[in-house]
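<amino_acid_chain>
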Amino acid sequence: MKKKSLLFICTENSARSQMAEGFAKNIAPDGVLVLSAGTQPASETHKMAISVMNDHGIDISSQKPKKISALKRYRFDLVITLCSSARENCSPLAGSPPRVHWNLDDPAVNIDTKKETKKAFRECADKIKALVSDLFNRGYFEAFATQKKNTENILNHLSQGLIAHDLKRKIFFFSEGAERLTGLSEIDVIGKDCHDVFIPRICGDHCSFCDGSDYSGSEVKCHSTINPGMDGNRKELEITVVPLKDENGKMDGVIACLRDRTEFKKISDALAERNSFSSIIGRSAKMIDVFEQIKSISGYDMPVSIFGKTGTGKEVIANAIHDESIRRDNPFVPINCGALPEGLVESELFGHVKGSFSGAVRDKKGRFELADGGTIFLDEVAELPKHIQVKLLRFLQEGVLEKVGSEKNIKVNVRIISATNKDLKKEVQKGNFREDLYYRIKVIPVTLPPLQDRKSDIPLLVEHFINKMIKTNKKNQKNVSKDAVNVLMNYSWPGNVRELENVIQFAVIKSTGNVITPKDLPMELTENIDISLKRGPSKKLDTNSVKTTLVRTGGNKAKAAKILDVGRATLYRFINDHPEVVPDDL
């Protein structure tokens, strides 16, 4: 059974609270823990308090003044303050115990003689003794403890998590549900700034207590957010924030209700049978792996490094990571490091002050400052000059930057996502990229598959690009013939998704009818591929003819398809269904 507990608080914890602790320990029932503490405790218990308590037959000489912070592991059932300073300045305590105030004058002030001092201490001790007696003998303490237990039982059995903080964002209540959802312990968060506990902050861009904001409204706010769970898995949370007001209707804090919507989100996504994720088109196994990786890392705020060949959509992936993160309501600022003139890279990234160089006619914010609170995407990061790599490393280590021509440090809060089509490890070995920076930016690596490895996504991408083209240029709806799809599926796509989009734009413009055929595609896609444009059923293949033809062509499937008078895609499908047709020596 949980032990009941009582705490007396006075600023110095040397007289009034020590005497109260002594009287309470003397008459409290077995199983009740009694302690006292101070906001600014003295070095020792007041000697006159010890003397007066001895007159009552109670020895408090062994009681030493304690600081409230030293008792943060306790969950008290009742807290009693004995001076106005303690009442106003006492920090929140675990479990948010009820508080009672005994407004007792300090017996140690404004007394001229020792005789008068002792008289004041005796009068104070008598008042405390009477109050402590009523607290236990009239059942007040038991009533407070029972009420607190009943309230906790109700709140802690809710599936939702409850967090409450004051107007300075200091947390004073953290339910067991909040512990389950966030993986944090009540003892570790009570009394701390909400923004110091949750990094990045759980409220995202919806906080009403930032930058001097005065949240005095009565409206209830609701928003979604993302938080990594205890096991490191992403949690989709719905947060409802309700203002708290005192007996006079004055705002004194908020309470946030956290609901776990992770499973609901998974089910709704599965029912929707989505072919895309955060504007990324694809349902191939490799792209689904990428989608899952984005979701798993979005709850964290660490640097991400994306590797992919030119045209694979690195910026789209970076944007998706941003949109799925807690920073999604803040700016996403992309910059192509390889496209910047070397002399302007530093200014573009970090900004400059007026007069710092020729042409600097005014102060300018850099991309990092513009992205404050959000995400900056450094595309082709391997192209950064060495001296800029040094500044970027410092920013990653300390979170501060210097504008060109300035000696002041600016603190900026951004998440860095970088991307490159080069092997950064090889660039380190060549001396082109700093090794320490390499390990700093590659905390979470993401690799994108080339289009050649996700060809099952091509039909989806084609449909997406056609719709995009039609919407932008107000063209009529167009379909793609099966022969044209075969051409697209058999092409190697060295330019990846970007090249495919260009091809579709070309085909939509070139085609005169409502159907895109092979003749509407660029020449480089069709010049080496034999496509039968004849109507009617395609030629049926059999294992003997395919095996004989493959032997004849030495395993060249393109030549075999020509001899068999079928499309290459048709032959590939047949071989996949009948792998025994491929001779063992080929």
About this structure: DSSP finds 23 helices and 22 strands in the chain.
